[in-house]
Design goal:
6 helices; mainly alpha; 0% strand; 42% helix; globular
Amino acid sequence: MRPFRRLSSDGGVLVLREIEKRLGLATCLASCLTDARNPASTTHSYADMIGARIFAISCGYEDCDDLDVLHSDPAFKLACGRLPETGRDLMSQVAARAFAAPTPPLAPLPLLCTCA
């Protein structure tokens, strides 16, 4: 175990989590996508992936490369509904890049995506 693994410099992400929970933005956006991936080999849902990217970008981590560090960050894991020490890690930068530019490409979002 790394000596300072329990530390995070991004405690503000927990405030963002509360805002996102009230708005339901990640779930709303994910509901506009058709997930054609094999469920047996899918680790992260689209809502989880979108939520992690929303939090990362909101905290100033615009680049997918930052997820190599953030995927095990205790504050980010907690914000994404996982236990900081024992919960499953968030998506890696490889998974983030695959989501950003999938093969085959995702169908374009409708011009107006509404959520109930």
